[in-house]
């Protein structure tokens, strides 16, 4: 999520996607070819991303992906050609570098340990290094679980693992097909869901801002923030005050600001108890 405010001068237009560095997975992170992908789907390996040529139809892959709750991302054949020059047959999957867990199990474990949930939801954070940096901060602040969407999230690959400085080995990661359902489930489980967005009128540091108790914080896309449907569902939202001339924060920096304010408030609440 980038916190923005209305600038006094015109901003340059965003660069197009074509100007961005092209993502290329490492060979040991990738499986390609119809039969190889089918066998991978049948195995115990967890798949991070599954890309399929938008012109290809393969019921075996589609049914197995549905059973394993793996979202198929339909892409042009040219994108698959950028992944590998070998014969991919219209399908490429990336092997997960972490073991995804069920959110319901994480919540149950947290409550059984006598702790309060402290979760982080990432809505369409696509930059791998930003994700790794966020994971590092999340682990350092005591976040118990990072929740990402099945589609439109950064691949948890070797770059993410490296940028996290190993934090992803010590924190639970949940991949949910629908974050709106996730928010609803968290609220039904007694968790307050707070969105950090520049659209909020509530300052992060106002006295009325309460980040104690069972809590899930949502941070949004680097480009357009948290999706409107999620903003309509949350219990409350806050914004980070921006006092200089620059109109936004990098999403990993913004996440650190919000998480450590939550840590500060929660520490005071524990001392006062």
Automatic annotation (TrEMBL):
Record-linked SMART domains: SpoU_sub_bind
RNA 2-O ribose methyltransferase substrate binding domain: residues covered: 30-101
Native species: Spirosoma foliorum
Domain of life assignment: Bacteria
Biased composition range(s): Basic residues: 1-17
Keyword Methyltransferase: yes
Region annotated Disordered, chain positions: 1-26
Pfam families, alphabetized: SpoU_methylase, SpoU_sub_bind
Keywords, alphabetical: Methyltransferase, Transferase
CDD domains, A to Z: SpoU-like_RlmB (cd18103)
Sample GO molecular function, one term: RNA methyltransferase activity
SUPFAM superfamilies found in the cross-reference section: alpha/beta knot, L30e-like
InterPro entries: Alpha/beta_knot_MTases, Ribosomal_eL30-like_sf, rRNA_MeTrfase_TrmH, SpoU_MeTrfase, SpoU_subst-bd, tRNA_m1G_MTases_N
Alphabetized PANTHER family for the sequence: 23S RRNA (GUANOSINE-2'-O-)-METHYLTRANSFERASE RLMB
Protein name: 23S rRNA (Guanosine(2251)-2'-O)-methyltransferase RlmB
GO cellular component, one term: cytosol
One BP annotation, GO: RNA processing
